[in-house]
Amino acid sequence: MDIELGNIQERFADLVWANEPLASGELVKLCENEFNWKKPTTYTVLRKLCEKGLFKNENGIVSALVSKDDFYSAKSKQIIEESYEGSLPAFIAAFMSGKKISVKEADEIQQMIDRFRKGD
Q1: Whole-angstrom Cα distance, residue 104 to residue 98?
Q2: Which of the residues 28, 47, 96, 105 could staple to 101 if both were Cys, CB 3.0 to 4.6 A apart?
Q3: Would the pTM count as exceeding 0.85?
Q4: Can you give the C-alpha Rg of the chain in angstroms?
Protein backbone atom coordinates (compact mmCIF):
# COMPACT_ATOMS: atom_id res chain seq x y z
CA MET A 1 0.00 0.00 0.00
CA ASP A 2 1.27 3.46 -0.93
CA ILE A 3 0.46 5.78 1.98
CA GLU A 4 1.77 8.95 0.36
CA LEU A 5 -1.33 11.08 -0.22
CA GLY A 6 -1.68 14.76 -0.92
CA ASN A 7 -4.06 16.82 1.20
CA ILE A 8 -6.93 16.63 -1.27
CA GLN A 9 -6.46 12.87 -1.78
CA GLU A 10 -6.58 12.42 1.98
CA ARG A 11 -9.80 14.45 2.26
CA PHE A 12 -11.25 12.39 -0.59
CA ALA A 13 -10.23 9.15 1.14
CA ASP A 14 -11.86 10.32 4.37
CA LEU A 15 -15.06 11.01 2.41
CA VAL A 16 -15.03 7.50 0.94
CA TRP A 17 -14.32 5.87 4.33
CA ALA A 18 -17.18 7.82 5.92
CA ASN A 19 -19.68 6.68 3.28
CA GLU A 20 -18.51 3.30 1.94
CA PRO A 21 -19.64 1.17 0.36
CA LEU A 22 -21.22 3.59 -2.07
CA ALA A 23 -22.13 3.75 -5.70
CA SER A 24 -19.61 5.63 -7.81
CA GLY A 25 -22.39 7.96 -8.99
CA GLU A 26 -23.14 8.84 -5.38
CA LEU A 27 -19.43 9.51 -4.83
CA VAL A 28 -19.50 11.92 -7.78
CA LYS A 29 -22.39 13.80 -6.12
CA LEU A 30 -20.61 13.89 -2.76
CA CYS A 31 -17.44 15.24 -4.36
CA GLU A 32 -19.41 17.84 -6.28
CA ASN A 33 -20.95 19.06 -3.00
CA GLU A 34 -17.79 18.74 -0.89
CA PHE A 35 -15.06 19.83 -3.32
CA ASN A 36 -17.00 21.40 -6.22
CA TRP A 37 -15.52 18.77 -8.57
CA LYS A 38 -16.76 17.62 -11.93
CA LYS A 39 -17.26 13.92 -12.62
CA PRO A 40 -13.89 13.38 -14.40
CA THR A 41 -11.97 14.81 -11.43
CA THR A 42 -13.68 12.42 -9.02
CA TYR A 43 -12.93 9.42 -11.23
CA THR A 44 -9.30 10.50 -11.71
CA VAL A 45 -8.68 10.77 -7.96
CA LEU A 46 -10.57 7.51 -7.32
CA ARG A 47 -8.48 5.71 -9.95
CA LYS A 48 -5.25 6.98 -8.37
CA LEU A 49 -6.31 5.79 -4.91
CA CYS A 50 -7.36 2.43 -6.35
CA GLU A 51 -3.89 2.15 -7.92
CA LYS A 52 -2.36 2.89 -4.50
CA GLY A 53 -4.32 -0.05 -3.09
CA LEU A 54 -6.65 1.90 -0.79
CA PHE A 55 -9.97 1.40 -2.58
CA LYS A 56 -11.64 -0.69 -5.23
CA ASN A 57 -14.37 0.19 -7.70
CA GLU A 58 -16.15 -2.99 -8.71
CA ASN A 59 -19.35 -2.90 -10.70
CA GLY A 60 -19.80 0.77 -9.82
CA ILE A 61 -19.49 0.20 -6.07
CA VAL A 62 -16.60 1.90 -4.28
CA SER A 63 -15.28 0.29 -1.11
CA ALA A 64 -12.12 0.27 0.97
CA LEU A 65 -9.37 -2.30 0.67
CA VAL A 66 -7.61 -0.65 3.63
CA SER A 67 -9.51 0.68 6.64
CA LYS A 68 -9.12 4.27 7.77
CA ASP A 69 -7.57 3.08 11.06
CA ASP A 70 -5.04 0.86 9.26
CA PHE A 71 -4.12 3.67 6.86
CA TYR A 72 -3.52 6.24 9.58
CA SER A 73 -1.66 3.69 11.70
CA ALA A 74 0.71 2.96 8.81
CA LYS A 75 1.11 6.68 8.15
CA SER A 76 1.98 7.33 11.81
CA LYS A 77 4.54 4.55 11.79
CA GLN A 78 6.10 5.94 8.63
CA ILE A 79 6.39 9.42 10.18
CA ILE A 80 8.08 7.98 13.28
CA GLU A 81 10.48 5.92 11.14
CA GLU A 82 11.39 8.73 8.75
CA SER A 83 11.44 11.71 11.10
CA TYR A 84 12.43 10.24 14.47
CA GLU A 85 14.66 7.32 13.45
CA GLY A 86 12.00 4.89 14.65
CA SER A 87 11.99 6.26 18.21
CA LEU A 88 8.49 6.50 19.64
CA PRO A 89 9.78 8.34 22.76
CA ALA A 90 11.46 10.95 20.51
CA PHE A 91 8.22 11.38 18.58
CA ILE A 92 6.18 11.78 21.78
CA ALA A 93 8.69 14.27 23.18
CA ALA A 94 8.47 16.35 20.00
CA PHE A 95 4.67 16.10 19.94
CA MET A 96 4.36 17.09 23.59
CA SER A 97 6.86 19.95 23.42
CA GLY A 98 5.18 22.94 25.01
CA LYS A 99 1.86 21.14 25.53
CA LYS A 100 0.12 20.17 28.70
CA ILE A 101 -2.10 17.13 28.96
CA SER A 102 -5.00 16.58 31.30
CA VAL A 103 -5.01 14.02 34.08
CA LYS A 104 -7.56 12.06 32.03
CA GLU A 105 -5.26 12.02 28.98
CA ALA A 106 -2.30 10.95 31.14
CA ASP A 107 -4.42 8.14 32.60
CA GLU A 108 -5.45 6.99 29.10
CA ILE A 109 -1.81 6.94 27.97
CA GLN A 110 -0.80 5.02 31.09
CA GLN A 111 -3.57 2.48 30.45
CA MET A 112 -2.24 1.96 26.90
CA ILE A 113 1.26 1.40 28.29
CA ASP A 114 -0.07 -1.01 30.92
CA ARG A 115 -2.02 -2.98 28.27
CA PHE A 116 1.11 -3.16 26.10
CA ARG A 117 3.18 -4.49 29.00
CA LYS A 118 0.56 -7.17 29.67
CA GLY A 119 0.63 -8.16 26.00
CA ASP A 120 -2.96 -7.13 25.20
Answers
A1: 18
A2: 105
A3: no
A4: 18
